């Protein structure tokens, strides 16, 4: 455990807590957190997760824009649900991404866990994209991904990061429950 990991973990908790509360400050705080984690994952040779953090940085900017200027009237997004076809499309994209990235990491790098790291990376991107669009289903996917990350980081000996992802799991459950109560959800698809 390092001070950098401790700071990144604290910012991560704050960013997800703000996301649950639908506060757009979750995005710039999240941006700082993912940049710190990019540095850490490079040191730990978790290259898919490093790539994930770089892509998350772009998605943080996209999410901030969506939450403050997106939507039909450009006044920010409201919580909505994906149709089943949208959920299946996202999960299919995650699966294809996991296979492609896993193959690249297994054959072209010295990644310590190329396939699992790639799968978690791909599905995290799907969940983050859904979150940027304020889709309710992002939270269900985050619960599954975060639980897998807890086991992954425990196995990797990254105990503080495993604890962070355990907290993320609890916050994702809270996000699901909170966003389901949002009045906008009942009038959307």
UniProtKB/TrEMBL annotation:
<keyword id="KW-1003">Cell membrane</keyword>
<keyword id="KW-0812">Transmembrane</keyword>
<dbReference type="InterPro" id="IPR006419">
    <property type="entry name" value="NMN_transpt_PnuC"/>
</dbReference>
<comment type="similarity">
    <text>Belongs to the nicotinamide ribonucleoside (NR) uptake permease (TC 4.B.1) family.</text>
</comment>
<keyword id="KW-0472">Membrane</keyword>
<feature type="transmembrane region" description="Helical">
    <location>
        <begin position="85"/>
        <end position="106"/>
    </location>
</feature>
<feature type="transmembrane region" description="Helical">
    <location>
        <begin position="46"/>
        <end position="65"/>
    </location>
</feature>
<feature type="transmembrane region" description="Helical">
    <location>
        <begin position="162"/>
        <end position="179"/>
    </location>
</feature>
<comment type="function">
    <text>Required for nicotinamide riboside transport across the inner membrane.</text>
</comment>
<keyword id="KW-0813">Transport</keyword>
<dbReference type="Pfam" id="PF04973">
    <property type="entry name" value="NMN_transporter"/>
</dbReference>
<keyword id="KW-1133">Transmembrane helix</keyword>
<protein>
    <recommendedName>
        <fullName>Nicotinamide riboside transporter PnuC</fullName>
    </recommendedName>
</protein>
């Amino acid at each position: 455990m390092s001070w950098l990991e401790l700071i990144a973990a604290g910012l991560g908790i704050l960013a997800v807590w703000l996301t649950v509360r639908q506060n757009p400050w979750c995005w710039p705080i999240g941006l700082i957190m993912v940049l710190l984690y990019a540095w850490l994952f490079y040191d730990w040779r978790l290259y898919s997760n490093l790539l994930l953090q770089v892509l998350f940085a772009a998605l943080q900017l996209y999410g901030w824009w969506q939450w403050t200027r997106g939507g039909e009237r450009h006044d920010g997004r409201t919580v909505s649900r994906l149709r089943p076809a949208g959920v299946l499309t996202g999960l299919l994209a995650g699966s294809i991404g996991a296979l492609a990235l896993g193959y690249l990491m297994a054959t072209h790098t010295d990644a310590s866990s190329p396939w699992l790291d790639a799968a978690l990376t791909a599905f995290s991107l799907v969940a983050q994209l859904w979150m940027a669009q304020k889709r309710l289903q992002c939270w269900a996917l985050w619960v599954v991904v975060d639980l897998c990350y807890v086991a992954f980081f425990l196995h990797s000996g990254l105990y503080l990061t495993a604890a962070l992802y355990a907290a993320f799991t609890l916050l994702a459950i809270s996000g699901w429950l909170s966003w389901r109560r949002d009045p906008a959800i009942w009038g959307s698809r």
